[in-house]
Amino acid sequence: MPAKVALVTGATGGLGIHVTRALLDAGFVVVGIAPTIQTKDFDHPHFTAVPASLDSLAAAKQAVDTVIAHFGKIDLLAHLVGGFAGGQSVADTDDATFQRMFDMNLHSAFHVLRAVLPHMRKERIGRIVAIGSRAAESPGAMVGAYSASKAALVSLIRTVAIENKDLGITANVILPGTMDTPANRQAMPDADTSQWVQPASVASLIVWLAGDGGKDVTGAAIPVYGRGL
Questions:
Q1: Distance CA 180, CA 15 (A)
Q2: How many CB atoms neighbour CB 205 within 10 A?
Q3: Could you give the number of structural domains in the chain?
Q4: How high does pLDDT run on average in the chain?
Q5: How far apart, in whole angstroms, are the C-alpha atoms of residue 217 and residue 13?
């Protein structure tokens, strides 16, 4: 049986490195997308780099078309692209910050979904997993733009699940609490990191959702809060 092909966006990020390695260890062929990614970033014969951003539908389609041309299919889309900007109240949040959050956390997903779904729908099979945030369902003060963009992502992924439930395609979104990544440690040097979620745990969940055990899970927003519950 040919190896399954996973497309991982944000593959060189703090979570992406763990997800890419976990999928490679699970026997997937992995194609990583990031603006400056290189094949040598992962020393593995089944890893391929596609340098690209997802800031437009055209860019997403070009990247996905490259994957299809080389491998003929995409079995799993693990969409990890996202980011945080903010720290102000809604009253003080400027238009640029609000737009940036929706570009990073929602529009990137919309672009890659539109690029990948036609191929999955044609094959009548596929798994989609996106990374949301605990803030999508439990918003807090001073993170309004971020929370709103992640909540919109949850709605988008759940809609994809409903629209494709009869086509063998599942779509789920994981809602982690604060993850123990180098970027978060740098941004919050005084935080109690023992309460943070380990990226390897999220990576393991993605591998499970992509396997036989996850075939009946779709339309779910899955909390991963760790000790920060």
A1: 9
A2: 19
A3: 1
A4: 96
A5: 26
Structure tokens at 211: 């396997």
Domain that holds residue 60: 5-228
Q: Are 112 and 9 in contact (CB under 8 A)?
A: yes
Nearest residue to 83 (alpha-carbon basis) of 183, 154, 160, 152: 183
Q: Distance between CA 147 and CA 29 in Å, rounded?
A: 33
- Residue 145 CB partners (closer than 8 Å, separation 6+): 85, 86, 90, 93, 97, 98, 100, 101, 102
The model carries a pTM of: 0.96
Say which residues have a Cβ less than 8 Å from residue 100's Cβ, sequence separation at least 6. Answer: 83, 85, 145
What CATH number has the domain bearing residue 93? 3.40.50.720
Q: Which has the closest alpha carbon to 46: 64, 65, 70, 66? A: 70
Q: Which residues contact 179 (CB under 8 A, 6 or more apart)?
A: 14, 15, 196, 197, 198, 199, 202
Contact 211, 26 (CB under 8 A): yes
pLDDT digits (tens, 9 = 90+) for 45-71: 999 999 999 999 999 999 999 999 999
pLDDT of the residue at 2: 74
Q: What are phi and psi of 69, to 5 degrees?
A: -65, -35
